[in-house]
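Dear colleagues,

For the upcoming journal club I promised to circulate an example of a predicted protein-ligand complex. I picked one with FE2/S2 (inorganic) cluster because it came up in last month's discussion. The inputs are reproduced below in full, followed by the predicted structure.
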Amino acid sequence: MTPWIDVAAEADLFEGAGIAMALEGQDIALFKLEDGSIYAINNLCSHGNAKLCDGFVDGHHVECPFHQALFDLRDGTVSCGPATEPVKSWPVKIEDGRVYLNLNC
Ligand code: FES
């Protein structure tokens, strides 16, 4: 069985913004960047109860809407505090205009 889950149409995602989705008990934020690349990270900030899908996207970073920690959307690492712990990220692939996530990683 393929680990890839069809989660969205690429055309339904807005560049420079994130959307939230609940999949298999995970709260996930899916972002499309201005270069068209798409990334999936945990939607809950590692510093507090903020939803990263509501954060400001700048390049390949998202800024937490609560205390402005910066997370790298490519791997969930912290680029600027106050957060110190990374958020989980999941592999994304795009095929025939559809976006797939692999939650097994
Ligand atoms: Fe995200 Fe504080 S809750 S930086």
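Two points we might discuss: The pocket of FE2/S2 (inorganic) cluster is lined by residues 45, 47-48, 50, 64, 66-67, 69, 82-83 (CB under 6 Å). The domain at 4-102 is CATH 2.102.10.10 (Rieske Iron-sulfur Protein).

See you all on Thursday,
B. R.
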